[in-house]
Recover the amino acids of this structure.
């Protein structure tokens, strides 16, 4: 049996469609809650759930209950203004039947897959709607939660918007992450697959800009829309979260590779203006490669202007400081070009070292012969 595990769709209909399209052969779907709020198309997501899922395979999330009963979803402090604004919108566009459906869902379910014992809730068993319990909290806290439900084989949870897979004694705790609003710096839709007792965490790319364009039909405050767009493009970073230096340090603590850190920062920077190099068509890759070539041409001209190239003008001086800045600007565009060409930091390093060896061989030979094939292996 193949089961698709999804959670925290949050009105992001393009993301949900991408996940469903990625796993068309799933025998069953388990949704761990939060169909609504934050996203621009909550009604479409609720309509899909009513049409597709039975109540025992759909867990109530805190935002589902909030829209269904007109309650406070108790969002974390940085997201309260976003939740309040989008809840008003969700309540306006969902029908009375949809609200009744959301209000009637259960926040915790127990079931068996063959003889495998499973528990599913949105947050944690002791507080299935609201509590946040990340995987890295103390083991006794997790053991207390699991002891209260007699250590099932699997505990399926959502709510944190961060995919995790962690074992505590006999129980494997699975959080598939968020379909519609990931918060782990990866903007792709997150989900998981349970297949005959084995679980894999997966991602699906989708057109983030399609979701952002859909906000224009919500009549939300432009500042709210811009903030939500930033969260989607960056995989969960609020505009007020971290400055670039803090972003790099946070990333570098987990991934101590400076080149990878530069790639990460450039990806975040490009997504701020709607350029997602992870999700481009072949035509878009060609166009953006050309765009960056033209941009680099201009930056090279600015670099030239830092050097006193007017030999007839003695007033010119060598602007060393600005020359360094222009070189960094060129590096920004070079990294962007590498990302357009789907090169990872490791692939760039490997290609550089291979080309370096070719260059040395050319120098050693006096570069007397042009060999068209000596770099085809790169």
């Amino acid at each position: 049996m193949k089961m698709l595990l999804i959670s925290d769709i949050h009105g992001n209909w393009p993301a949900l469609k991408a996940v469903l399209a990625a796993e068309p052969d799933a025998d069953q779907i388990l949704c761990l809650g939060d169909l609504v709020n934050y996203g621009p198309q909550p009604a479409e997501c609720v309509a899909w759930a009513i049409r597709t899922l039975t109540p025992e395979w759909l867990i109530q999330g805190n935002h589902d209950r909030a829209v269904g009963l007109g309650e406070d979803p108790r969002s974390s402090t940085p997201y309260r203004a976003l939740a309040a604004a989008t809840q008003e919108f969700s309540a306006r566009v969902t029908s009375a039947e949809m609200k009744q459906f959301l209000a009637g869902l259960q926040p915790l379910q127990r079931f068996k897959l063959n003889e495998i014992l499973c528990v599913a809730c949105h947050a944690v068993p002791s507080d299935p709607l609201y509590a946040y319990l990340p995987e890295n909290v103390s083991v006794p806290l997790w053991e207390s939660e699991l002891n209260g439900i007699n250590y099932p084989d699997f505990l399926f949870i959502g709510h944190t918007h961060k995919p995790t897979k962690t074992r505590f004694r006999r129980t494997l705790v699975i959080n598939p992450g968020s379909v519609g609003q990931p918060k782990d710096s990866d903007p792709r839709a997150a989900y998981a697959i349970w297949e005959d007792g084995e679980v894999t965490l997966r991602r699906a790319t989708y057109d983030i800009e399609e979701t952002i364009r859909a906000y224009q039909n919500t009549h939300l405050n432009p500042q709210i829309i811009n903030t939500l767009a930033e969260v989607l493009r960056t995989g969960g970073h609020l505009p007020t979260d971290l400055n670039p230096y803090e972003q790099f340090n946070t990333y570098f603590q987990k991934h101590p590779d400076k080149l990878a850190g530069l790639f990460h920062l450039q990806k975040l920077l490009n997504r701020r203006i709607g350029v997602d190099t992870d999700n481009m068509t072949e035509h878009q890759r060609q166009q953006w490669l050309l765009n960056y070539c033209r941009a680099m041409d201009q930056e090279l001209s600015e670099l030239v202007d830092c050097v006193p190239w007017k030999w007839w003008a003695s007033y010119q001086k060598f602007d060393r400081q600005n020359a360094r800045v222009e070189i960094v600007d060129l590096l920004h565009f070079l990294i962007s070009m590498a990302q357009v060409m789907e090169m990872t930091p490791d692939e760039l390093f490997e290609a550089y070292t291979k080309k370096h060896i070719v260059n040395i061989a050319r120098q050693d030979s006096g570069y007397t012969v042009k060999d068209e094939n000596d770099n085809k292996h790169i």
